[in-house]
Amino acid sequence: MVGSTGPGAKRSRAPHFAVSTRPADLFVVAVGGSLGTLARYAMSRLVGVPKDGFPWATFWTNLSGALVIGFFVTMVVEVLPPSRFARPFFAVGFLGGYTTFSTMATETVVLAKDGEALRGVVYIVSSVVAGIALAYAGVRLARLVIKGFR
To answer: In angstroms, what CA-CA distances link 5 with 73, 77, 82, 83, 148?
Structure first.
């Protein structure tokens, strides 16, 4: 229970979203972001980007990123020892570079502009709904893993 103390109490380190401008923090975010961007590019090459079709590469990239961030942040907050660089490097940098809201938004606008408004609405709504569901699934998966090791 959050706020409980004593043996067996669940450790709670609520995520904070303060922005650090310390050079070391900025460096790990930049390195993580660079690697995440390369991973996104690799995913787009692997999945492919159809000229006049559904933007599958961005869709699968964003959904896999949602699942991973749910899992990762849960592990960092509930299990792993405190680390100054884990979240900035991986959650902010790598996954921030890997996933891309701006590309999803642009692809939605392009679909609408090209007379595919319904496809654009399906794309944006399914991306958001499935992304939230997969982030939650990542949290639940992490908690199953945690439970299995306790």
So the answer is: 22, 17, 18, 22, 23
How do residues 112-134 score in pLDDT, each as one tens digit? 999 999 999 999 999 999 999 99
Tokens standing for residue 121: 């609405």
Instruction: State the residue for tokens 């991986």.
Output: 90
Phi, psi of 129 (to 5 degrees): -65, -50
CA-wise closest residue to 146 among 92, 75, 57, 55: 75
In a domain, 3, yes or no: no
Alpha helices per DSSP H over 50-100: 56-78, 86, 95-98
Give, to the nearest 10 degrees, the angle between helix 56-78 and helix 117-149.
30
* Parent domain of 92: 23-149
